[in-house]
Structure formats: structure tokens, C-alpha cells
Write a structure and sequence with these properties.
Helices cover about 45% and strands about 15% of the residues. With about 150 residues, the chain is of the alpha+beta class. Strands 1-2-3-4 form a four-stranded antiparallel β-sheet, covered by helices on one side. Helix 1 crosses helix 7 and helix 5 packs across helix 7. The longest helix has 15 residues. The chain is globular.
């Protein structure tokens, strides 16, 4: 817990609050990289696994939205000049998962995920409660700053 206090004290001015919506984050990324939408329904195992991960995530902790109601969008990030900063230390295809109702965001690229979580921000209620969302945000904030994923 002391490490999180230190992170908060050191990086207090980097915390983004209030948080941006999932729509704003999708627009942010659309303007930054090239992507192609993947139809996850064609990959039943990955679709079910993704739904389970979202259902059990901190984003659904209080909402408890039934996974049958999720609206999931999966992007394959095209490896080109725009995305070179993410692919420079990554040998595989990069994917990003968005879920609209829980506002879940995930990626198999830690650098991209940390950037998106930090840029999304956090609401004041989570900061005051120091809940899982807050702790997760601080973890990604520290990672993003340590790895130069954000300014």
C-alpha cells in the first residue's frame, strides 16, 4: 500500500479526472493509429473467454452486467508508421478490446493498455474510495510513466 501512496504523491499531477468515456477513448485511438475490426464471434473460444474476462473485471465489479448484454469490439492494430511505437518492443499482432457497457478496455500490448487506461482517467468517487479501480489506475500510471508510454 505504501508504494501506491508514493505513486499518488509523486504523480498526483498526472492523474486524469474526471474520466473520459469509452466513446472518447475509441475516438482518441482512431485518430492515432490504423486498425481493422475483428469479428470475434467467428472465434467462439476467444469470444467466450473475452466475455468471461470482462464480466470478472474491475470494470464490471459494481455494475454486474450480464455477459450476454456486452457490446464487444475488437481491433487489430495495423503495424505501420503510426503504430511503430507500440510494435517496437512487440513481436506479435496487437489487439485492443473495448466493451461499451462496462467501459472495459484491454490490449495484449502493455504499453498501449497503460496509455489507454491513463488517458481514460478515473472518476473522483474512485479516487476518494481508493477502490480496485483506483489501485488499478495507479498501477498503470506508474507503468506508463516508467516506460514512457505517456507524456
Amino acid at each position: 500500500m505504501n508504494e501506491y501512496k508514493n505513486v499518488k504523491n509523486i504523480y498526483q499531477n498526472k492523474i486524469i479526472s474526471p474520466e473520459n468515456s469509452i466513446i472518447e477513448m475509441i475516438e482518441y485511438l482512431k485518430n492515432k493509429i490504423d486498425y481493422r475490426i475483428i469479428d470475434l464471434h467467428k472465434h467462439k473460444y476467444y469470444y467466450e473467454k473475452t466475455k468471461s474476462n470482462i464480466y470478472n473485471s474491475y470494470c464490471n465489479e459494481n455494475k454486474k452486467i450480464n455477459s450476454d448484454h456486452f457490446i464487444i469490439e475488437v481491433w487489430e492494430i495495423i503495424n505501420n508508421e503510426k503504430s511503430s511505437m507500440y510494435y517496437s518492443n512487440f513481436d506479435d499482432t496487437i489487439y485492443v478490446v473495448f466493451e461499451y457497457k462496462t467501459e472495459f478496455i484491454s490490449s495484449n500490448s502493455n504499453d498501449l493498455l497503460a496509455e489507454l487506461i491513463v488517458k481514460k482517467g478515473i472518476n473522483t468517487k474512485d479516487i476518494e474510495k481508493k477502490n480496485n479501480t483506483y489501485m488499478n489506475y495507479l498501477f498503470f500510471l506508474k507503468y506508463a510513466i516508467d516506460n514512457h508510454s505517456i507524456d
